[in-house]
Specification:
The complex is a heterodimer of chains A (about 525) and B (about 300). By secondary structure, chain A is an alpha+beta fold. Chain A has 14 helices and 23 strands. In chain B, α7 runs antiparallel to α8 and α9 packs parallel to α11. In chain B, a hairpin with a 2-residue loop joins β2 and β3. Chain B has 2 domains: about 210 residues, Multidrug efflux transporter AcrB transmembrane domain (Multidrug efflux transporter AcrB transmembrane fold), CATH 1.20.1640; about 80 residues, Alpha-Beta Plaits (2-Layer Sandwich), CATH 3.30.70. The chains are: A alpha+beta (about 525), B alpha+beta (about 300).
Chain lengths: ~525, ~300
């Protein structure tokens, strides 16, 4: 027997399988012993931690290589709850020492516009391995947007870029924004955001975000980098308007927000030209121009501001933008006003999208559901494996065959997951369906190999012919299946791409590497 | 009894082919009836016809029928159905399907549920699909399926270089899908996009069996024709058994409604495929070989 095992491990097919298995495990890099700290998933672009040198994690970086926060002011943060508990205790404008697995950062605790300390960092539990879990498993939001009317390729790219930028403003970096098309040539934009997503982000994505500031019928400036050079988002020049604050109405409260922006010299010049010939009027002891500055978002007026006489004909670059929010309680109204402010700031920063978009599909998957699903699928996988082993054992009554069969089947799974880790796939429900097919057809093929080599009729044949016969069947099933899977790549805006890709890669790995290795093992073990 | 069945299987194979044919005709009738009465040949779920599903994964203190009544009172003009979700015999949550597509209306429904049952954000998931996408998705899956069949046919011809095998593989996949679809319709369940993936998975499983039988009957010369058929049957039945036990285990224990639907379709499909492969396809191949022998004998 020892001789046979040596022979198995010296066979090139088995050696190839073992080598690839080794590299797959290396690519997946499971952290069996657990990991310290919480992983940084994203951070706000202008936050003080960024100024202190902490950089936003690039989406392409391997999950286990992401920076992890080990402690804040000496207090360990091993879970997400730990981290938020420590941060909630922090006081504004005090020095903070944040230690990560890479280095330590020292900075002043910033105060957000609602008065609380917000480091601007979003964290999540440290990754267990380099496998990227898709939304179905991790929770998050998937939005499929469809442009209204036709869209050129160039506009589609611009839209994708602008949407990425909008999400960056919200500190979301670990996201997927890509264009997709279907068999009828319709274009879509697919956005996937992991973790819990705020409602306003979903709202913002589908908005065209066409911002216009008008005096009378003339546009003074548009949203976007051409006309607006700076948008203030720090607490000293943005937030609830101190001159107005919040006021009570019959049905609730009403709050005003305000923030500073800087116009480009050309836009300022334009402002001067338009206001130069306007009449002035006196009202409540103040001098104002006869026309207001009206702010429009997607052709709906959001606010109307009086223009002081001193600005008549002046090419001023500093302008205050304001708006409002409402709610049943004062806290609700403040929150609503701040949300509206952020939306407006975002469209002013990123400009308008070239087309109007419509939400074609929107999925919000709860993170709890995803985790539960993953555990459940693993449990079912183990139970199914036990049941299948029982059937095979009953049929062949030879442990010497069952053992390598199960080992090779598991190694097929590891190879697919290794490939998924290397190719930076997001494993989602469709991929799991693909894995089920691969494991299922894999099992079928192991049975074909075993039967082709063990059946009575084959006894007259030499081993080479028996294996050739078995591989002929397997290869046939493989190429025919390949034919049936290819059209799925383009159907339904790529929603079944994960299924097709996993199945094709899995079957290829199985048919070309693992299953021939199993045939060799069976041959060596049973050959007299 | 077993010997009698074996005798019929061996000698009356042409007559036995009536069984899958009859099943196919009945299935087509069911699908036709479904189309005539509902306007669709399958009971499409929210993702395929447009609408929304709110899935709550927390046990609620109310039965699904009571919840449905109460929601219908609060949202009188919206068609709504409430399903109970379960795994291994235990209730795991509920799902509310409705035709709602507008985000403010959906938010109102979510808020009602959240207020009544003290739900946190992490307790529920929401899926919204616009009707145009749903329709489009379904149509495209059908186009993809036609292409799949064509490519499959080409691959079989290239591999086996026998036209009858190509015809047989495609016919088997077609019968598997149509008969399974009709039985699925009878369960009254709503089809999810992942369910479509399950129909495609059926092709994968069906092809394995067809290739085994074709290889053994057409390419081999060892033993008699019947010996080869029984050899292939033994292999094929082991393949079906392993898949069946895995599918049944998953059907009992899996929590996800979507995976459950995949497994149910696979279960129906595998049983249908057993009849299609071992009665219809073996029949066609034997018929083909008989004709071939006769013509070569002449």
């Amino acid at each position: 027997m020892g001789n046979k095992i040596t022979k198995i491990f010296l066979n090139w097919r088995v050696l190839l399988l073992v080598t690839l298995l080794f590299f797959s495990i290396l690519a997946i890099r499971p952290n069996i012993f657990g990991t310290e700290g919480v992983e940084i998933s994203s951070m706000l672009v202008n936050s003080s931690v960024v100024e202190a040198g902490l950089s936003n994690p690039a989406s392409k970086i391997l999950p286990t290589a992401r920076e992890r926060i080990l402690s804040v002011n000496g207090e360990e943060t091993n879970t997400v709850e730990d981290y938020y508990a420590v941060v909630s205790q922090l006081q504004a404008n005090r020095t903070i020492r944040l230690e990560t697995n890479e280095r330590a950062y020292t900075f002043l605790a910033p105060q957000s516009s609602d008065g609380e300390v917000d480091l601007g960092i979003k964290v999540r539990e440290a990754s267990f391995s380099n496998l990227r879990m898709g939304l179905d498993l991790e929770g998050g939001t998937r939005v499929l947007l469809q442009p209204v009317g036709g869209i050129s390729e160039e506009d589609l790219e611009t839209t994708v870029d602008s949407l990425k930028e909008r999400l960056n403003v919200y500190g979301l970096r670990d996201i997927v924004v890509r264009s997709a098309s279907d068999l009828s040539g319709n274009d879509f934009i697919l956005i996937e955001i992991a973790g819990v997503t705020e409602d306003e982000i979903q709202e913002l994505l589908a908005k065209q975000g066409k911002f216009e500031a008008k005096v009378g019928n003339q546009t003074v400036f548009f949203g976007g980098k051409k006309d607006i050079t700076y948008v203030c988002r720090s607490a000293d020049c943005s937030g609830i308007d101190p001159n107005f604050g919040c006021q009570q109405f019959d049905a609730g409260y009403h709050c005003r927000f305000a923030f500073q922006i800087s116009l480009s010299p050309e836009a300022a010049q334009h402002h001067a030209l338009i206001t130069k010939n306007l009449k002035t009027i006196s009202e409540q002891g103040g001098c104002y121009l006869a026309e207001d500055l009206a702010l429009y978002l997607d052709d709906v007026e959001v606010d109307r501001l009086r223009i002081g006489c001193e600005l008549k004909g002046s090419s001023t670059t500093d302008i205050q933008i304001s708006g409002s929010g409402a709610g049943v309680t004062q806290a609700d109204a403040v929150n609503d006003a701040l949300k509206n402010m952020k939306k407006l700031q975002t469209v002013l920063l990123t400009g308008s999208l070239p087309v109007k978009l419509e939400v074609a599909k929107l999925d919000t998957i709860s993170p709890n559901l995803g985790k539960e699903f993953l555990h459940n699928v693993m449990l079912v996988g183990v139970l199914a494996l036990v049941a299948v082993s029982g059937v095979v054992l009953y049929r062949y009554r030879k442990v010497v065959i069952i053992f390598p069969m199960l080992l090779v089947m598991l190694s097929e799974l590891v190879l697919i997951l290794g490939f998924a880790a290397l190719a930076k796939w997001n494993l989602d429900l469709a991929s799991i369906a693909g894995l089920i097919v691969v494991v299922g057809t894999g099992m079928n093929h192991f049975i074909v190999i075993t039967d082709e080599t063990l059946r009575k009729e084959a006894e007259a044949l030499d081993w080479k012919t028996r294996i050739k016969n078995a591989l002929f069947i397997i290869m046939g099933a493989y190429v025919i299946n390949l034919g049936s899977l290819i059209p799925l790549f383009w159907a339904g805006a790529g929603l079944l791409k994960g299924f097709a890709l996993t199945t094709i890669v899995g079957m290829s790995v199985g048919v070309l590497i693992a299953r021939p290795a199993y045939a060799t093992i069976v041959k060596i073990l049973l050959e007299e | 009894m077993f010997q009698k069945i074996k005798h019929i299987y061996e000698t009356k194979y042409k007559l036995l082919m009536i069984i899958p044919l009859l099943l196919l005709v009945l299935a087509l009738m069911q699908i036709g009836f479904q189309y005539a009465t509902t306007g669709d040949f399958v009971n499409k779920g929210v993702s395929l016809k447009g609408g929304s599903t709110i899935t709550v994964t927390k046990e609620l203190s109310i039965s699904s029928s009571d919840l449905e009544k109460s929601l219908q009172q609060q949202f009188p003009n919206v068609g709504m159905t409430v399903r109970t979700l379960s795994a291994a015999g235990q209730t795991t949550g509920i799902a509310v399907d409705s035709a709602l597509q507008d985000s403010t209306e959906i938010d109102a429904l979510v808020d009602t549920l959240a207020d009544n049952f003290e739900l946190q954000k992490a307790d529920y998931s929401v899926e919204v699909v616009g009707s145009s996408l749903g329709e489009n998705f379904f149509r495209q899956m059908l186009i993809a399926l036609v292409f799949s069949f064509l490519l499959m046919g080409v691959m079989v011809i290239l591999y086996f270089r026998v036209f009858i095998t190509s015809l047989m593989v495609i016919l088997a996949a077609f019968c598997d899908i149509v008969i399974t679809l009709a039985i699925f319709n009878l369960t009254g369940m709503q089809l999810h996009p992942a369910g479509i993936a399950a129909f495609l998975m059926l092709i994968g499983y069906s092809v394995d069996g067809e290739v085994v039988i074709s290889s053994r009957l057409i390419k081999r010369r060892d033993g008699t024709e019947l010996q080869r058929i029984y050899g292939a049957l033994k292999t094929g039945w082991t393949m079906t058994q392993t898949t069946l036990v895995a599918v049944i285990v998953a059907l009992i224990f899996v929590q996800s409604e979507v995976v459950k639907q995949i497994m149910l379709i696979l279960l129906i499909g595998l049983l249908v495929d057993t009849i299609v492969t071992w009665v219809q396809n073996v029949g066609i191949l034997r018929w083909h070989l008989e004709k071939k022998h006769k013509s070569s004998g002449q």
